[in-house]
């Protein structure tokens, strides 16, 4: 057998990876087919024991792609055999396409070396345990925590909005997710949302000790409800630490597309995106996710995980609702329709630039007071522009007003309605914002233009499944990726921008009207009396608003 092991190692290319278990079993579907099964630290290698050449009869599956493994007996008491089933979702080339996507592979074996059913079952359980343990060890953890280390077995509440997207979320759950979660040994309860705000109300009241994770299968709107519901609780600090999961069931599915993108896999859509996100959910790697608090002029503060939009993007998002039957393509259709009636949105936009590193940030905070009475332009960092040389002029026209009070900290404590309001409202306090009706702090940049085509603040990479708006974004980079397009852009140039955005190439188009900068907070004061502002794709009160990023406030099961 030793000779066979080393031969296998050579043949499989596992090289130095240690053979930890070896056995010879029959395959479950055909008892006449025997195979040798080798478990190394990294792979499961299955080789049919026939006289045919080795390559054709050998399967090598990486344990990185394994979501679970189980040992079981069949109902037949006369059968002493135990069974072993392992579930993999490796990346495979798509039929007739150059892309790859995760596709399900099940390997199951019959173990009947002994007459004693218990002994066979013990052997099968030993294998199942070893496969599960090694596939957990193969996770590329970076800074993440594994769900399996927090809770075992893991209990998830899966919230499905049956109306989301094309109205197929429940079917998609039945066809893919239920099975995947069972394969991963995740105990889950399906909750079907009945109406708008149902999830939000549930989150306010839920006994969260019952759940190790809350999974949303819908568009982004349902997650928005869940996050805001959690942050409305008096125990919000604990509640918002509940691990969240996202499965695409809507037509936009921006967060689902973002976590797929962060996993490094090539772009996919529809059911392939669902399988990818289901895989990431089963693997259970937990990461922190930034949230952004948003103050509106009269509505209570709310929290956002994805985007804030005004102008063209917000209009397209809302106007394209009527095309949701075409799925993700609704944004393309909506963009074309809106382009025909392209308009200018008037308003004032200002932001607090993100410090390039931690020391810069300390300096920014420490120097707020010292700089307050200076001319503001002297301390304003330049935004990252598509054409930096051309746009550097905008900082000369900076027109912030300054407070005479020389301690910003004291001023905030005394006068910030948002802060005093947030004392009574749950959720973390905002440390960068002054009240909306007060002038901006001096270290903010005011955009000199007042005519815009759009303003888009992103905190994750994707605006929709096929719109990679902020390619540099990561889950918890503590940054708002702010884009705006100045008025004067032609329809053709704007269309080119959105077409390029499908691949995240819009920043490379050298569009002189597009500005991109990373910020920690922003304020928007639309001048036009009517319009649309969206937060995570949901319409919010139209009027002045401001926003601040809260680093890693929530936790998301992502890759
Ligand atoms: N059973 C239901 N009937 C009607 N609306 C519901 C139901 N359950 C949830 N909702 C509401 O539907 C709204 C839209 O949900 P969501 O954004 O998740 O899906 P979607 O709009 O189809 O997705 P996308 O934004 O990607 O197009 C949410 O505000 C949610 O409150």
What does this structure look like?
Helix 4 (169-183) packs parallel to helix 9 (270-283), helix 10 crosses helix 11 and helix 11 (330-340) packs antiparallel against helix 16. This protein has 559 residues and is of the alpha+beta class. It is built from 16 helices and 27 strands. Among the domains are: 2-138, Pleckstrin-homology domain (PH domain)/Phosphotyrosine-binding domain (PTB) (PH-domain like); 345-533, Tumour Suppressor Smad4 (Sandwich), CATH 2.60.200.40. Bound molecules: adenosine-5'-triphosphate. Adenosine-5'-triphosphate (ATP) binds next to helix 6. One of its GO terms (biological process) is sphingosine biosynthetic process.
Q: What structural class do the secondary elements suggest?
A: alpha+beta
Largest sheet: 12 strands, antiparallel
Number of helices: 16
**Ligand catalogue:** adenosine-5'-triphosphate
Q: Can you name the CATH architecture of the domain at 345-533?
A: Sandwich
Q: Helical residue percent?
A: 25-40%
Number of DSSP strand runs: 27
CATH class (first level) name of the domain at 345-533: Mainly Beta
How are the SSEs placed, and which strands pair?
Layout: H1 2-12, E1 19-27, E2 30-40, E3 43-48, E4 58-62, E5 66-72, E6 82-88, E7 91-93, E8 100-102, E9 105-111, H2 117-137, E10 145-146, H3 147-150, E11 155-160, H4 169-183, E12 187-192, H5 198-205, E13 213-218, H6 220-231, H7 236-239, E14 244-248, H8 254-262, H9 270-283, E15 285-296, E16 302-304, E17 307-311, H10 312-319, H11 330-340, E18 345-353, H12 358-371, H13 388-391, H14 408-415, H15 417-424, E19 445-446, E20 451-458, E21 462-464, E22 467-468, E23 480-486, H16 491-501, E24 514-526, E25 533-535, E26 538-540, E27 545-557
Parallel strand pairs: 11-12, 11-13, 13-14
Antiparallel strand pairs: 1-2, 1-9, 2-3, 3-4, 5-6, 6-9, 7-8, 10-15, 15-16, 15-27, 17-20, 17-25, 18-19, 18-20, 18-24, 20-23, 21-22, 23-24, 24-27, 25-26
Helix pairs in contact: 4-9, 5-6, 8-9, 10-11, 11-16
The structure holds adenosine-5'-triphosphate.
């Amino acid at each position: 057998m030793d000779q066979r092991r080393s031969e296998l190692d050579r043949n499989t290319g596992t090289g130095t990876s240690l053979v930890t278990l070896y056995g010879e079993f029959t395959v479950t579907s055909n008892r006449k087919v025997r195979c040798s099964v080798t478990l190394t630290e990294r792979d499961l290698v299955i080789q049919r024991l026939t006289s045919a050449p080795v390559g054709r009869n050998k399967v090598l599956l990486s344990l990185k792609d394994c979501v679970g493994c189980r040992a079981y007996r069949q109902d037949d008491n006369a059968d002493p055999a135990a069974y072993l089933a392992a579930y993999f979702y490796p990346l495979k080339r798509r039929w007739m396409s150059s892309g790859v996507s995760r596709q399900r592979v099940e390997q199951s074996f019959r173990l009947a070396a002994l007459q004693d059913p218990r002994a066979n079952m013990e052997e099968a359980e030993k294998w199942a345990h070893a496969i599960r343990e090694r596939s957990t060890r193969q996770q590329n953890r970076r800074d993440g925590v594994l769900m399996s280390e927090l809770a075992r077995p893991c209990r998830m509440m899966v919230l499905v909005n049956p109306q989301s997207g094309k109205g197929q979320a429940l079917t998609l759950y039945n066809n893919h997710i239920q099975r995947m979660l069972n394969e991963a040994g995740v105990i889950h309860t399906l909750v079907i949302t009945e109406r708008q705000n149902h999830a939000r109300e549930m989150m306010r009241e839920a006994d969260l000790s019952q759940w190790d994770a809350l999974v949303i299968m819908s568009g982004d709107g349902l997650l928005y409800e869940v996050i805001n519901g959690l942050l409305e609780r008096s125990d919000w600090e604990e509640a918002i630490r509940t691990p969240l999961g996202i499965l695409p069931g809507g037509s936009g599915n921006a967060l689902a597309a973002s976590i797929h993108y962060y996993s490094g896999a090539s772009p996919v859509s529809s059911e392939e995106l669902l399988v990818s996100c289901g895989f990431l959910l089963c693997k259970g790697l937990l990461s922190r996710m930034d949230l952004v608090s948003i103050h509106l002029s009269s509505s209570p503060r709310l929290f956002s995980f994805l985007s804030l939009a005004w102008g063209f993007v917000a209009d397209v998002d809302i106007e394209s609702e009527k095309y949701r039957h075409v799925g993700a393509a609704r944004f393309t259709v909506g963009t074309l329709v809106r382009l025909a009636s392209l308009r200018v949105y008037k308003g004032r936009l200002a932001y607090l630039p993100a410090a390039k590193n931690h020391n810069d940030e300390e300096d920014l905070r420490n120097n707020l007071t010292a700089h307050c009475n200076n001319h503001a332009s002297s301390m304003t960092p330049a935004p990252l522009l598509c054409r930096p040389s051309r746009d550097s002029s905008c900082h000369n026209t900076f027109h912030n007003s300054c407070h005479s009070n020389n301690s910003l900290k004291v001023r905030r404590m005394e006068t910030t309605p948002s802060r005093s309001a947030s004392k009574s409202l749950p959720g973390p306090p905002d440390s960068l914002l002054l009240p909306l009706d007060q002038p901006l702090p001096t270290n903010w940049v005011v955009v000199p233009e007042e005519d815009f085509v759009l303003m888009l603040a992103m905190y994750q990479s994707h605006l929709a499944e096929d719109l990679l708006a902020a390619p540099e974004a990561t889950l918890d980079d503590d940054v708002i990726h702010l884009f705006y397009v100045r008025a004067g852009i032609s329809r053709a140039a704007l269309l080119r921008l959105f077409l390029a955005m499908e691949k995240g190439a819009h920043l490379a188009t050298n569009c002189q009207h597009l500005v991109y900068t990373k910020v920690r907070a922003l304020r928007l004061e639309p001048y036009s009396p009517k319009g649309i502002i969206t937060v995570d794709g949901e319409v919010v009160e139209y009027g002045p608003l401001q926003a601040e990023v809260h680093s890693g406030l929530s936790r998301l099961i992502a890759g």
